[in-house]
Amino acid sequence: MFEPTTLKDIAKALGLSTSTVSRALRDTHEISSETKKIVLEYAQKINYRPNPIALSLKERRTKSIGVLVSEVANHYFSQAIGGIESIAYDRGYHVIITQTHESYEREKINIQHLASRGVDGLLVSLSAETSDTSHLSLLHDRGLPMVFFDRVAKDIETHKISANNEQGAYDATIQLLESGRRKIAHLTSSNHLSISIERLAGYTAALQKYGIPVQEEYIKYCPHGGMFPEETEQAIQELMSLKDKPDAIFVAGDRLSIGCITVMKKFNISVPEEISISGFSNSDVLDLFNSPLNSVRQPAYEMGRLATEMLIKLIESKYPVTEFENRVLDTELVIRS
């Protein structure tokens, strides 16, 4: 069985007291530079690492951050996690990643597990099914630091970071209108998510600028954000079976965008000749499709970095934080057609 080296082991090997070794490793002024040098060189030689469990008991910290996302395979979230890890590991924090797969029940279980593990804070992007955030409010009220990114909870007062979803949706819809399309449908995730509400607002504003009324039958919600292919397929079939079929679709999600192209190919619907598609997506896979798809790209990596910086500030603050930031980052419309 693996037995990690302890301070007592180093003290015994060097003929010093445990307290002297501890102070030398912490670089305190009470210990002479010569003793510090001896202790540090020996610790390096045996590859000594402090016991994280002992440290967490002493400092009441585990130096770990819990991350809650819908799925790591989603291109947006994989890029955001890259940003999270770039800051966390540089600051000495470990990252524990959990996936909800758009399930509210799984989100609750994951949150409880992370809290029971004693994480120092949480980075949260809500699942598509989540409308009740009381499980998070309870932990937040008890003092667990948390920061929301991408899909935020409006009723919890803390730092939040998101993309400018409304502007991104507006830009994508305007581009479709400028290309001559007038019957533009909207495919989106569950209707209560912050990103869905904001992207619907941008889509609506673009239509209004062109004096085009919003048609409810053109708006299709996928309760799990297209995680289940049958959701996307049913929504597309309903749109294409309308008497007045749309000539374009603005898709408000990464997985939905790729799913939409897949469904079009399955039913031999030509893109963009028969129907144009523009969507939110951070995936470079879109470049490989024969059918060009313009997309709104979010600064996912930077969002992950900023959210982590905000969370670590909360964790390490010596005083209660009462003022919070709501950061909104610009999106970019990538034209492929």
UniProtKB/TrEMBL annotation:
- Residue stretches making up the HTH crp-type domain: 1-44
Q: Which Pfam families match?
A: LacI (PF00356), Peripla_BP_3 (PF13377)
* Keyword match Disulfide bond: no
Question: What keyword terms does UniProt attach to this protein?
Answer: DNA-binding, Transcription, Transcription regulation
Stored Gene3D superfamilies: 3.40.50.2300, lambda repressor-like DNA-binding domains
Q: Which residues form the HTH lacI-type domain?
A: 5-59
Q: Which InterPro entries match?
A: HTH_CRP, HTH_LacI, LacI/GalR-like_sensor, Lambda_DNA-bd_dom_sf, Peripla_BP_I
Q: Give start-end ranges for the coiled-coil region(s).
A: none
Protein name, as recorded: Substrate-binding domain-containing protein
